[in-house]
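Sequence dictates fold. Next comes a concrete instance:
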Amino acid sequence: MKIDYPQVDLPLEVLAWTDVTEDILNIYKQSCQLRACIIAICTEGRMKASINLLDYEIHPNDLITLLPGTIIQFKEKTEKVRLCFAGFSATCVGRINLMKAIGNIYPKFIERPITPLAENISDYLKQYITLLSRVSCDESFDIDPELADISLQAILTSIRLIYREVPERNENSNRKKEICMSLIQLVTKHYKEERKAQFYADQLGISLQHLSTTVKQITGKSVLETIAYITIMDAKAKLKGTDMTIQEIAYSLNFPSASFFGKYFKRYVGMTPLEFRKG
């Protein structure tokens, strides 16, 4: 049975706050799915959160990276909690190639949505978030879409460089998580050519049923939804960030026709590629 989580976006293309307290976090006490991209740093206290149905504990100076599609739920806190965060709306995210900005460390993002920062790196990011907060909260200043895109690219590049230094988790790895990480790596590499779940099961050397059950348990998504997530992310970036025709985009993603691409896009986004481009 598919669970339809409430979809959460931001009211502005860029929204940043330097003092997010538990009063605001209470909004996320019920599970919801983000349409926006949110980067946060814990500045005080400790709390527990569920990210894509896995439980994590958040500590001071922890970096929290929540990509679009993330299922999030904040749980109990052990003491007074404060966060600073920068969020970018689905519209802003749709204009850039998120996969290109993240690069080959995407599996680490999925495996470790929370990672500790050295104090000096934490301070640098907090200062950047403070600047974004001043701009986004200034009613007399409208953030141009180009500036919003550059800001998102800059912060994602910084985080990509941080995650590049994060070691792989080899010791005592959970086999189910290993399968999910391997799937994501394969999809990132082959999504333009292969969108059938059976292909990835064959590549991993396991049965399709085993792959489907494992991915659903760990991520809450089906194998096809995982493939579609990465495919649609690329499609959105091309629709908003390039002058390519819809037919050219369809062919670049190896769809047999613009019509087939349109049906695939609408199934997962809820609107046609043209409607998304004009929106």
